[in-house]
Fold this sequence. Notes:
Blueprint lengths: L1 H17 L13 H7 L2 E13 L8 E8 L5 E7 L13 E7 L2 H5 L9
Antiparallel strand pairs: 1-2, 1-4, 2-3
GO molecular function: metal ion binding; metalloendopeptidase inhibitor activity; protease binding
Main location: secreted
Subcellular location: Secreted
Amino acid sequence: MKIKIIFYCFILLIIEQKINVVNGCTCVEETFEDKYCRADWVARVLITESIEINEGEETDYLIRYTVKFLDSNVTKFIFTSANEGLCGVKLKNETEYCFFDLQMERVTNRGRGADDN
Length: 117
């Protein structure tokens, strides 16, 4: 009986080692309006150019977008994974988008601001 238990534990250990663990991004099911209202910053932008970047054999491809902030003369680069499975986002050139997000401090604090207790 003891040998069976050891054997089954060994089999479970082997199976556990063979299972691929996948950590992907998830999006909380919220309406567009809720996400917009919770955002720390909002920007209306125009995508003017996109370039795929390969930084090496072991890294995933990135896409660098040249972004013009509308209602200002500011142009910046934003980067995203080329792989949608890694939360990459495909954006079309010469298309207007509304970007908004929470600051990382709030995200790591489970969505609570510094003055929320």
